Task: structure prediction
Amino acid sequence: MSKPAAEPKFGFSPIPVIDISDPESKQAIVKACEDFGFFKVINHGVSSELVSVLEQEAVKFFSLPKSEKTQLAGYPFGYGSREIGRNGDVGWVEYLLMNANLDFGSMITDGLGIKQRDTLSKLVSDSNTDSMFRLNHYPPCPLINKNTNGGKNVIGFGEHTDPQIISVLRSNNTSGLQICLTDTSWISVLTNGRFKSVKHRVLANSRKSRVSMIYFAGPSLTQRIAPLTCLIDNEEESLYEEFTWSEYKNSADNSRLSDNRLQQFKKEPVNDS
Ligand SMILES: O=C(O)CCC(=O)C(=O)O
Ligand SMILES: [Fe+2]
Result:
């Protein structure tokens, strides 16, 4: 069971909304990645029928008896409940994590003005990428009650930055996702600090269930991770030591949800004095 959460230090501010049917949207995407690390997409061309079928299937799956769902329990892929990762993080959530593969990186590459059109998309679109699809279900939470916990928040999914390179999220109409606008400690290595990776969390709801679906795009395990050379100036130093995706994943596997997983790869600042 999750502990009642401390008062949020999460800020609120209008999130950029990007119409990706607009040819100018590529620049807006890059600006949103630099300023927030988060944006809402409209006119994305994914049919509402498809989305609602997927959502209904997710609801059907999570409505199955626990004994049937736990037959799919596994790590890293499979069904899980309450425990997030293997290092003691818990939340008011159950989920199903699957292996998956899509190509959508080229839009961001275009916006960054990278000539080789598919640089980023290649990273996350190989046939053997470490990409995944996650369904989350946050059932109504009876613990959010004035008598039992003073009406405090209950954490559905604790504060974290996503472990992969790009995340695409869709949720039903139940609110709960909060993004932290004041503390963006996770900084993308590939853009040498240019793009932000936003901290976020989900609060459980006392009456309604929340269902979310997220596609996490990642590269292949052997991929070397370093700033894209076309994005850094000649004199600009990389902020991070080089590492492979598999080295990063191994260290991420041993971290807690709120840890900064890139810290160990960060270069020591040079002291001029
Ligand atoms: O359920 C949500 O809306 C977000 C979940 C999330 O942040 C995650 O699965 O990484
Ligand atoms: Fe997340």
Notes: Residues 134, 136, 157, 162, 169, 171, 177, 200, 202, 212, 214 surround 2-oxoglutaric acid (ligand 1) (CB under 6 Å). The chain is about 20% helix and 25% strand. The CA atoms of residues 86 and 105 lie 30 Å apart. The radius of gyration is 19 Å.
